[in-house]
Design goal:
Layout: H1 3-18, E1 61-66, E2 79-80, E3 83-86, E4 91-94, E5 99-102, E6 105-112, E7 119-122, E8 124-126, E9 136-143, E10 150-158, E11 177-183, E12 189-196, E13 205-206, E14 209-212, E15 222-228, E16 233-237, E17 240-245, E18 256-264, H2 279-282, E19 287-298
Length: 303
Protein backbone atom coordinates (compact mmCIF):
# COMPACT_ATOMS: atom_id res chain seq x y z
CA UNK A 1 0.00 0.00 0.00
CA UNK A 2 1.21 3.51 -0.75
CA UNK A 3 2.99 4.97 2.31
CA UNK A 4 1.04 8.25 2.22
CA UNK A 5 -2.28 6.36 2.19
CA UNK A 6 -1.22 4.36 5.26
CA UNK A 7 -0.33 7.55 7.14
CA UNK A 8 -3.63 9.21 6.26
CA UNK A 9 -5.58 6.09 7.27
CA UNK A 10 -3.84 5.90 10.65
CA UNK A 11 -4.41 9.63 11.26
CA UNK A 12 -8.17 9.36 10.79
CA UNK A 13 -8.32 6.18 12.88
CA UNK A 14 -6.68 7.96 15.81
CA UNK A 15 -8.86 11.04 15.32
CA UNK A 16 -12.08 9.02 15.37
CA UNK A 17 -11.00 7.01 18.43
CA UNK A 18 -9.88 10.09 20.35
CA UNK A 19 -13.11 11.99 19.71
CA UNK A 20 -15.44 9.12 20.49
CA UNK A 21 -18.17 10.50 22.77
CA UNK A 22 -19.80 8.89 25.75
CA UNK A 23 -23.56 9.07 25.96
CA UNK A 24 -24.69 12.68 26.12
CA UNK A 25 -21.24 14.22 26.46
CA UNK A 26 -19.04 15.71 23.76
CA UNK A 27 -15.48 14.85 24.82
CA UNK A 28 -12.05 14.39 23.33
CA UNK A 29 -10.63 13.00 26.59
CA UNK A 30 -12.62 11.95 29.63
CA UNK A 31 -10.49 14.15 31.93
CA UNK A 32 -10.34 17.20 29.66
CA UNK A 33 -13.25 19.01 31.25
CA UNK A 34 -12.31 18.69 34.93
CA UNK A 35 -10.48 21.75 36.23
CA UNK A 36 -7.30 20.70 38.06
CA UNK A 37 -8.07 23.31 40.74
CA UNK A 38 -11.42 21.76 41.67
CA UNK A 39 -11.09 20.14 45.13
CA UNK A 40 -10.52 16.39 44.78
CA UNK A 41 -13.27 15.60 47.29
CA UNK A 42 -15.86 17.93 45.73
CA UNK A 43 -19.45 16.66 45.90
CA UNK A 44 -22.79 18.37 45.23
CA UNK A 45 -24.10 20.56 48.01
CA UNK A 46 -27.37 18.93 48.99
CA UNK A 47 -29.21 18.89 52.31
CA UNK A 48 -32.56 17.66 53.61
CA UNK A 49 -33.23 15.50 50.56
CA UNK A 50 -33.85 11.75 50.72
CA UNK A 51 -32.06 10.88 47.49
CA UNK A 52 -29.05 13.12 47.93
CA UNK A 53 -28.02 12.94 51.57
CA UNK A 54 -24.36 13.49 52.32
CA UNK A 55 -23.69 9.80 52.89
CA UNK A 56 -25.07 9.02 49.44
CA UNK A 57 -23.17 11.76 47.65
CA UNK A 58 -20.29 9.37 47.01
CA UNK A 59 -22.27 8.10 44.02
CA UNK A 60 -21.55 11.36 42.18
CA UNK A 61 -18.41 11.50 40.04
CA UNK A 62 -17.06 14.86 38.90
CA UNK A 63 -16.99 14.98 35.07
CA UNK A 64 -16.83 18.71 34.31
CA UNK A 65 -15.75 21.81 36.20
CA UNK A 66 -14.40 25.31 35.84
CA UNK A 67 -13.16 27.23 38.87
CA UNK A 68 -12.55 30.39 36.79
CA UNK A 69 -9.15 30.94 38.38
CA UNK A 70 -7.37 31.98 35.19
CA UNK A 71 -7.20 35.34 33.45
CA UNK A 72 -8.83 34.17 30.26
CA UNK A 73 -12.02 32.23 29.46
CA UNK A 74 -11.27 28.58 28.59
CA UNK A 75 -12.39 28.30 24.96
CA UNK A 76 -12.19 24.50 25.03
CA UNK A 77 -15.24 24.66 27.32
CA UNK A 78 -16.95 27.95 26.51
CA UNK A 79 -17.94 30.22 23.67
CA UNK A 80 -18.42 33.90 24.50
CA UNK A 81 -21.37 35.12 22.45
CA UNK A 82 -21.42 37.96 19.95
CA UNK A 83 -25.16 38.36 19.44
CA UNK A 84 -27.95 40.90 19.34
CA UNK A 85 -31.57 40.77 20.39
CA UNK A 86 -34.35 43.26 19.69
CA UNK A 87 -36.76 43.85 22.51
CA UNK A 88 -39.88 46.02 22.32
CA UNK A 89 -38.14 49.15 23.55
CA UNK A 90 -34.39 48.44 23.59
CA UNK A 91 -31.69 46.65 21.59
CA UNK A 92 -29.49 44.20 23.50
CA UNK A 93 -25.95 43.27 22.44
CA UNK A 94 -23.46 40.72 23.75
CA UNK A 95 -19.77 40.64 22.87
CA UNK A 96 -16.37 39.56 24.26
CA UNK A 97 -16.00 42.80 26.26
CA UNK A 98 -18.95 41.89 28.47
CA UNK A 99 -17.40 38.65 29.80
CA UNK A 100 -14.15 38.65 31.78
CA UNK A 101 -12.40 36.00 33.86
CA UNK A 102 -10.31 37.37 36.73
CA UNK A 103 -9.82 37.19 40.51
CA UNK A 104 -11.34 33.71 40.75
CA UNK A 105 -14.61 34.53 38.99
CA UNK A 106 -16.00 34.97 35.53
CA UNK A 107 -17.81 38.31 35.32
CA UNK A 108 -20.81 39.28 33.23
CA UNK A 109 -21.10 43.03 32.73
CA UNK A 110 -24.17 45.21 32.11
CA UNK A 111 -23.81 48.68 30.65
CA UNK A 112 -25.32 51.22 28.31
CA UNK A 113 -23.86 51.15 24.80
CA UNK A 114 -22.25 54.17 23.19
CA UNK A 115 -24.04 53.36 19.92
CA UNK A 116 -27.29 55.11 20.74
CA UNK A 117 -29.70 55.86 23.56
CA UNK A 118 -31.68 52.62 23.34
CA UNK A 119 -28.89 50.03 23.11
CA UNK A 120 -27.52 48.07 26.08
CA UNK A 121 -24.81 45.46 26.59
CA UNK A 122 -24.83 42.25 28.65
CA UNK A 123 -22.47 39.27 28.52
CA UNK A 124 -23.32 35.66 27.63
CA UNK A 125 -21.31 32.44 27.29
CA UNK A 126 -22.17 28.77 26.78
CA UNK A 127 -20.74 25.29 26.16
CA UNK A 128 -22.65 24.54 22.95
CA UNK A 129 -20.76 22.14 20.68
CA UNK A 130 -18.13 21.62 23.37
CA UNK A 131 -19.83 20.01 26.34
CA UNK A 132 -23.41 18.78 26.61
CA UNK A 133 -24.35 16.23 29.29
CA UNK A 134 -27.37 13.97 29.41
CA UNK A 135 -28.36 13.68 33.09
CA UNK A 136 -26.25 14.59 36.09
CA UNK A 137 -25.99 17.14 38.88
CA UNK A 138 -25.18 20.66 37.66
CA UNK A 139 -24.09 23.13 40.31
CA UNK A 140 -22.86 26.72 40.27
CA UNK A 141 -21.82 29.18 42.96
CA UNK A 142 -22.87 32.60 41.75
CA UNK A 143 -23.42 36.24 42.61
CA UNK A 144 -26.69 37.36 41.08
CA UNK A 145 -26.81 40.95 39.94
CA UNK A 146 -29.47 42.85 41.86
CA UNK A 147 -32.29 43.22 39.32
CA UNK A 148 -32.89 46.80 38.27
CA UNK A 149 -33.80 46.32 34.63
CA UNK A 150 -31.47 43.34 34.19
CA UNK A 151 -30.98 39.73 35.28
CA UNK A 152 -28.45 36.89 35.47
CA UNK A 153 -29.33 33.32 34.45
CA UNK A 154 -27.82 29.82 34.70
CA UNK A 155 -29.66 27.48 32.34
CA UNK A 156 -29.38 24.71 29.75
CA UNK A 157 -30.46 24.22 26.14
CA UNK A 158 -30.71 21.13 23.91
CA UNK A 159 -27.65 20.39 21.82
CA UNK A 160 -28.38 20.27 18.08
CA UNK A 161 -31.55 22.03 16.96
CA UNK A 162 -32.21 23.57 20.35
CA UNK A 163 -35.76 24.86 20.72
CA UNK A 164 -36.35 25.64 17.06
CA UNK A 165 -38.49 22.51 16.61
CA UNK A 166 -38.01 22.08 12.89
CA UNK A 167 -40.46 19.17 13.01
CA UNK A 168 -43.94 19.03 14.48
CA UNK A 169 -43.87 19.57 18.29
CA UNK A 170 -44.33 16.20 19.96
CA UNK A 171 -45.96 17.58 23.10
CA UNK A 172 -43.37 16.76 25.77
CA UNK A 173 -40.01 17.99 27.01
CA UNK A 174 -38.47 14.58 26.25
CA UNK A 175 -36.89 15.80 23.01
CA UNK A 176 -35.37 18.85 24.68
CA UNK A 177 -36.29 21.94 26.68
CA UNK A 178 -34.99 25.24 27.93
CA UNK A 179 -34.06 24.31 31.50
CA UNK A 180 -33.91 27.39 33.72
CA UNK A 181 -31.97 26.58 36.89
CA UNK A 182 -32.01 30.19 38.04
CA UNK A 183 -33.16 33.45 36.48
CA UNK A 184 -32.47 36.26 38.94
CA UNK A 185 -35.37 38.47 37.97
CA UNK A 186 -36.83 39.67 41.29
CA UNK A 187 -35.54 41.46 44.38
CA UNK A 188 -36.83 38.79 46.78
CA UNK A 189 -37.30 35.81 44.48
CA UNK A 190 -35.97 34.06 41.39
CA UNK A 191 -37.49 32.06 38.57
CA UNK A 192 -36.90 28.44 37.52
CA UNK A 193 -38.62 25.88 35.28
CA UNK A 194 -38.90 24.54 31.74
CA UNK A 195 -39.93 25.70 28.26
CA UNK A 196 -40.50 23.18 25.49
CA UNK A 197 -41.99 22.65 22.01
CA UNK A 198 -40.34 25.78 20.66
CA UNK A 199 -41.20 29.39 21.48
CA UNK A 200 -43.91 30.04 18.90
CA UNK A 201 -47.53 29.97 19.99
CA UNK A 202 -49.67 27.93 20.27
CA UNK A 203 -47.15 25.05 20.43
CA UNK A 204 -44.96 26.61 23.15
CA UNK A 205 -45.37 25.22 26.68
CA UNK A 206 -43.81 26.15 30.00
CA UNK A 207 -44.10 25.46 33.72
CA UNK A 208 -42.05 28.17 35.38
CA UNK A 209 -42.21 28.93 39.08
CA UNK A 210 -41.08 31.76 41.33
CA UNK A 211 -38.99 30.76 44.36
CA UNK A 212 -39.40 33.33 47.10
CA UNK A 213 -36.13 34.06 48.93
CA UNK A 214 -36.36 37.16 51.16
CA UNK A 215 -33.12 39.15 51.18
CA UNK A 216 -31.57 36.92 48.51
CA UNK A 217 -29.18 39.71 47.50
CA UNK A 218 -27.92 40.40 51.01
CA UNK A 219 -25.47 37.50 50.68
CA UNK A 220 -22.82 37.74 47.96
CA UNK A 221 -22.90 34.12 46.77
CA UNK A 222 -25.55 31.43 46.51
CA UNK A 223 -25.28 27.90 45.15
CA UNK A 224 -27.83 26.78 42.56
CA UNK A 225 -28.12 23.11 41.67
CA UNK A 226 -30.03 20.95 39.25
CA UNK A 227 -30.33 17.16 39.57
CA UNK A 228 -31.41 15.50 36.34
CA UNK A 229 -32.14 11.79 36.01
CA UNK A 230 -34.24 9.82 33.49
CA UNK A 231 -37.05 9.76 36.08
CA UNK A 232 -37.05 13.10 37.89
CA UNK A 233 -35.75 16.66 38.04
CA UNK A 234 -34.80 18.48 41.23
CA UNK A 235 -33.89 22.15 41.60
CA UNK A 236 -31.74 23.25 44.54
CA UNK A 237 -31.07 26.54 46.31
CA UNK A 238 -28.12 26.52 48.73
CA UNK A 239 -28.37 22.75 49.06
CA UNK A 240 -32.11 22.48 49.61
CA UNK A 241 -34.66 21.18 47.12
CA UNK A 242 -37.03 23.98 46.09
CA UNK A 243 -38.85 22.17 43.29
CA UNK A 244 -39.21 18.61 42.01
CA UNK A 245 -40.74 17.19 38.82
CA UNK A 246 -41.62 13.54 38.28
CA UNK A 247 -44.06 13.70 35.36
CA UNK A 248 -42.42 11.60 32.59
CA UNK A 249 -43.54 14.15 30.00
CA UNK A 250 -41.39 16.83 31.68
CA UNK A 251 -38.09 14.94 31.75
CA UNK A 252 -35.67 15.82 28.92
CA UNK A 253 -33.95 12.72 27.56
CA UNK A 254 -31.38 14.33 25.22
CA UNK A 255 -28.08 16.14 25.71
CA UNK A 256 -28.15 19.81 26.82
CA UNK A 257 -25.34 22.37 26.97
CA UNK A 258 -24.64 24.83 29.81
CA UNK A 259 -25.51 28.49 29.52
CA UNK A 260 -24.71 31.62 31.56
CA UNK A 261 -26.28 34.85 30.40
CA UNK A 262 -26.99 38.42 31.32
CA UNK A 263 -29.96 40.28 29.91
CA UNK A 264 -31.46 43.78 30.03
CA UNK A 265 -35.11 44.85 29.93
CA UNK A 266 -37.00 48.08 29.49
CA UNK A 267 -40.67 48.08 30.34
CA UNK A 268 -41.42 44.55 31.49
CA UNK A 269 -43.34 42.55 34.05
CA UNK A 270 -40.52 39.97 34.01
CA UNK A 271 -37.75 41.73 35.93
CA UNK A 272 -37.89 44.31 38.67
CA UNK A 273 -36.91 47.75 37.44
CA UNK A 274 -36.37 49.29 34.00
CA UNK A 275 -32.84 49.62 32.63
CA UNK A 276 -33.84 52.89 30.92
CA UNK A 277 -34.61 54.36 34.35
CA UNK A 278 -31.58 52.87 36.09
CA UNK A 279 -29.60 56.02 36.98
CA UNK A 280 -26.39 54.09 37.68
CA UNK A 281 -26.39 52.57 34.19
CA UNK A 282 -27.61 55.75 32.51
CA UNK A 283 -24.73 57.69 34.06
CA UNK A 284 -22.10 55.30 32.72
CA UNK A 285 -22.02 52.77 35.56
CA UNK A 286 -21.28 49.10 34.95
CA UNK A 287 -23.24 46.48 36.90
CA UNK A 288 -21.95 42.92 37.23
CA UNK A 289 -22.92 39.37 38.03
CA UNK A 290 -20.26 36.71 38.51
CA UNK A 291 -19.70 32.98 38.78
CA UNK A 292 -17.24 31.45 41.25
CA UNK A 293 -17.46 27.93 39.83
CA UNK A 294 -19.56 25.50 37.85
CA UNK A 295 -19.35 21.71 38.37
CA UNK A 296 -21.13 18.76 36.82
CA UNK A 297 -21.35 15.32 38.42
CA UNK A 298 -22.71 12.06 37.05
CA UNK A 299 -23.44 8.61 38.41
CA UNK A 300 -22.12 5.41 36.85
CA UNK A 301 -25.59 4.40 35.64
CA UNK A 302 -26.26 7.79 34.02
CA UNK A 303 -22.87 8.45 32.43
Amino acid sequence: MNKSIVIITLFFAVLITGCKAKKGILVSNKNTFVDTETPKNAIPLSLLDSTSKKEENKKWKLVFSDEFNDNVVDTTKWTVEKTQKKRVDIMLYADENQVEEKEGNVYIYYRKSQMNDTTYMAGRFNSKGKYAPSYGFMESRMHLVKPNGFQMAFWMMPEGNGMRNLNEPEGTANDGAEIDIVEGNKLDAYSLGLHWDGYAKPAHKSNGALVKIPNIHDTEYHIFGFEWTPKYLKFYYDGKVVREMKDPKLIPQVAHFLYFSGSCFGKSDWVDGDVRKNEFIQNGGVAKAYVDYVRVYQTEENK
